[in-house]
Amino acid sequence: MSFPYGQTRTHVAARHALIAPDGHVKSNVPGITGAATIILINEAMGAKFAQLLVTFESGGRAALPANGIETAGYFETGGGTLAIGRLKQKVAAGAFFFAPAGEAWSMTAAKRGTRVTLFQKKFVPLAGEKTPAPIIGDAAKVQGQPFLGDPDARLQVLLPDVPAFDLAMNIFTYQPGATLPFVETHVMEHGLLMLAGQGVYRLEDAWYPVAAGDVIWMAPFCPQWFVAMGKAPASYLYYKDVNRAAL
Ligand code: UGY
Ligand code: MN
Question: Half-sphere exposure of 1 toward its Cβ, with a 13 Å CA cutoff?
Answer without folding.
Answer: 2
